Amino acid sequence: MKPLEFRGHDVPLHNFTVDNDGLSPDKTKRTVQGGHMQGTFEFRYAQFHWGSTSSQGSEYRVDGIAYPMEAQLVYTRDNYAAVKEPGHKYSVAIMATLYQVTFVDFDSVRAMRSILEVVESTTSTRGHRSLRHLLPWMVRRLTGHGSDADKSFPLTLHSLMPQADRQKFYTYRGSLTTPPCTESVRWTIFSRNAFISEALPSLRAAWWLEREIRSDLASL
To answer: Is the predicted pLDDT of residue 213 greater than 60, yes or no?
Structure first.
């Protein structure tokens, strides 16, 4: 089997949007192919799941272990634009990364620390705000866009994935875990983890307003 090939995943995300439904990209084409993919799939959006404590939050468990956060990158075959109305069996692919807590200063931890600094400064000076309003403001700060920008954060799709050995994973054919629960999804769950710091409680506290704490839905 050929290795997975990621194209455009090192290109920084600019002018993307973030709201309660997840992160939507700019106009740059980012694709994955090879391996078990049976075609070329183009990135559409990302969504994140976290829990009320660091011992839960991910939709997937591995060997009975839940993780504090999970990032899901959603792709469709490059000739299908809509996830909700796919025109081909298995026309949606989702790459899931499980995050574990660490005290080591990895790049992903430093990136999350920068995000949390912005979140905490926002909530301390403006009080709790709707997630729909908080996240776009935060992203403008981190990417250098907007009049109040004072940080630069080179967010890429690879920064949301494991930093090593992306060729090891679990895979199966299933459905979306959120409405409309489309049954045309090729799931890929990386066996290596990404990392997040114990500052995650600040993220939970800042985004509590419109965030439903989800229980685990699947085990591997």
So the answer is: no
Element (H, E) at 77: strand 69-77
Q: How far is 119 from 59, CA to CA, in rounded Å?
A: 24
Q: Do the domain assignments include residue 219?
A: no
In a domain, 38, yes or no: yes
Q: Identify the CATH number of the domain in which residue 129 sits.
A: 3.10.200.10
Q: Could you read off the pLDDT of 154-200 as tens digits, one per residue?
A: 667 888 888 778 899 999 998 887 777 777 899 999 999 888 766 55
- Residues in CB range of 210: below 8 A, 6 or more apart: 20, 130, 131, 132
CB atoms under 10 Å from CB of 8, counted, come to: 16
Domain enclosing residue 117, as ranges = 5-214
Sequence-distant (≥ 6) Cβ neighbours of residue 29 within 8 angstroms: 7, 8, 42
For residues 134 and 76, give the distance between their C-alpha atoms in angstroms, rounded to a whole number. Answer: 28
Q: What is the pLDDT of residues 41-68, one digit of tens each?
A: 999 888 877 777 777 778 888 888 888 8
Q: Is residue 149 part of a domain?
A: yes
Coil, helix or strand for 205? Answer: helix
Q: How many domains are there within the chain?
A: 1
